[in-house]
Amino acid sequence: MNSATIAEPWDKEIVPRRGWWDVPVRELWRYRDLVLLLALRDLSAQYKQTVAGPLWFVLQPLIATAMFSLLFGRMAGLSTDGTPHFLFYMAGMTVWNFFAECVNKSAYTLVRSAHIFGKVYFPRLAVPLAGVATTAAAFLIQFAIFLAGLGFYLWKARVDPAVHVDPNWRIVLLPLLIAQAAMLGVGVGLVISAITTKYRDLMLGVGFAVQLWMYGSSVVFPLSAIHGDRLRHLVACNPMVPIIEAVRFAFLGQGLVTKAQLATSAAVSVGMLVAGVLLFNRTEQSAMDSV
Amino acid sequence: MARVLHVENLSKRYQLGSLDGRSFFTAPTAAKTFWALREISFSVAEGEVVGFLGRNGAGKSTLLKILSSITSPTAGRIRLRGRVASLLEVGTGFHPELTGRENIYLNGAILGLSRREVTAKFDEILAFAGVEEFIETPVKRYSSGMRVRLAFAVAAHLDAEIMVVDEVLAVGDAAFQKKCLGKMGEIATGGRTVLFVSHDVASVEALCRRAIVLERGRLCFDGTQTEGIAHYTAMRSGGGKSLRERTDRGGSGEVRVTGLEIRDRRGQPVAEIQSGAPCDVVLHYESSLRHPTLAAQILVTTHVGAPVFTLANWLTGDEFRDLPDRGTLVCRIPRLPLPEGSFRVSFQLFADSGGRDELDSMTHAAALDVLGGDFFGSGKIPRISAGVCLVDGAWTAE
Asked: Which of residues 90-149 of B touch A (CB under 8 A)?
């Protein structure tokens, strides 16, 4: 052979390590049907052979909201910024649940799908993406209940001047805020997923850490209940706080959030997503040798 | 012809042990490593069907896993053209709670088909699997045979340019295996490139024109199917060495067996033989004694070494006197009484018919692979699970 060797048009090269930025985005697009089918599988398999079926999507947040109203609203007497308890907790819960599920689903990607990943190749990112789709479906159902509740309180506010709810034009920002929560959740989840392939102990702490995170995320209290500017700024550094506060501000008219905080939170979310995807993409290639 | 696959110096190292017990707080111990693949290079042209042969642990599966991007190599590179579809284990991703229909779509998507592509082939897949009546039934209620058929049907209808197939034919009943082989042949003749991994010589023989033999992670043969199979068979029986080179033998050495082969009814040396078929076990010998008198016996054992039967010339009443210095002894078996499976042939040569004065002997001198066959002439294929030896017989009621 010499330099006259015919150059063959290769489509794909398999090398020991892909570059950091070599994320198979185009391939992921080609497998978009897989993302959809995986999501549908999760949704339908989850509730086959259960008594209440999809009703569980509705019951879970309702029961949790009732618990919160009782524990934090009535017994502990935490402030809800003067908004109805049900709406206050429900708004925080649905957004938080969506985020937490994004973290959970992404974090367990490599470990839970190891049996499939070890036998067949498809872009691994399809699995966390499908997880987001499933989670988004659950969120929509839960948010619909929230909206029904909002409708009820709006009607009530007409006859009872003590009820304060004030939805405003900012509700159009909801898709953006939710996308931001998804990016943050998936990013955090993928980082965890990449690390847990080597260090299993982290997995044990994930559920617990996410739960702790919730108590620092203005789900059971409004940011305004934090006294002192310094402390309040510190709490607002948690990227989930501006998201939840913004949702409450848009739908209930009460919430403490600045444009700067939102922008910072958005930047952190995007950064987290990029870090998660890159780290995951890098680990995934040899992960099947160790899980 | 244009190459669709080019593998250069591919190596893969695995770490053994240690990883399981590793945690964040304990530093990784100096792990033992092991090379599953060492500097493998080959290329495959469009439309070629290549069989990969090798014993368990030779690196076949690792190679295919790297080819199908399941894991990445430690060194070297692969360049390829077109889509790679791997059928490493059929039925991957089947969800027991979902119906057959839902699983066909899901499995198709996992293997890289779009919903539209699956819809276009749906009827064909269904007909091939033969599970039409159960299509709306959850897969958990399927028999294992039905599940396998459905999975293979989906995988076999992929339209990828490069198909990677690993031992799929080890599943299902004989009729379905035959159907699978037929389908694989069809795919191969359809101009697609097929990489076929098996330790079943028969299916490689049926499908592939080219064979690549791996041993302990290295590529030790790349050439035509016939030569490849011969190489593999020889390797399996003697650890890669020819009988002449083997030193794991007993006896005085005054007479030596230099070759042992199995021949079919036409006198052709073969790698395997069918149950109930006539065959000859042929010993080639060289003697340093003049006009030797020999007594010979062969012992057939299962692949784990359990004796099945012995044939000795002093038992059959045949005698060998004043033989030439080099020649062949032939032991004829009119109807091979072995079921489908892997057997070994050992031999012993004596100077005396009483089993004294051993001249030469070797355990596991050759492999005898038996293919399932219609031993009883009833259309049924007896299985090794029912006994390692087949005996003529018939049933009547009195």
From this structure: 92-93, 95, 97-98, 102, 105-106, 109-115, 138
Long-range CB pairs of A281-285 (<8 Å, 24+ gap) are: A281/A18, A281/A20, A281/A22, A281/A23, A281/A24, A281/A124, A281/A125, A282/A17, A282/A18, A282/A20, A282/A194, A283/A110, A283/A193, A283/A194, A283/A197, A284/A110, A284/A117, A284/A124, A284/A194, A285/A17, A285/A18, A285/B71, A285/B72
Least Cα distance to B204 among B230, B234, B242, B235 occurs for B230
- In this structure, are residues A182 and A140 in contact, taking their beta carbons and an 8 Å threshold? no
Tell me the pLDDT tens digit for each residue of B341-364. 888 899 999 987 766 788 999 888
B250 phi and psi angles, rounded to 5 deg: -110, -170
Instruction: Select from B39, B59, B60 the least CA-distant residue to B51.
Output: B60
Do A14 and B24 make contact, defined as CB atoms within 8 angstroms?
no
User: Structure pTM?
Assistant: 0.71
B242 CB neighbour count, 10 Å cutoff: 12
| Contact between B93 and A8 using a beta-carbon 8 Å cutoff | no
* Structure ipTM: 0.77
Report residue B297: phi and psi, to 5°: -145, 145
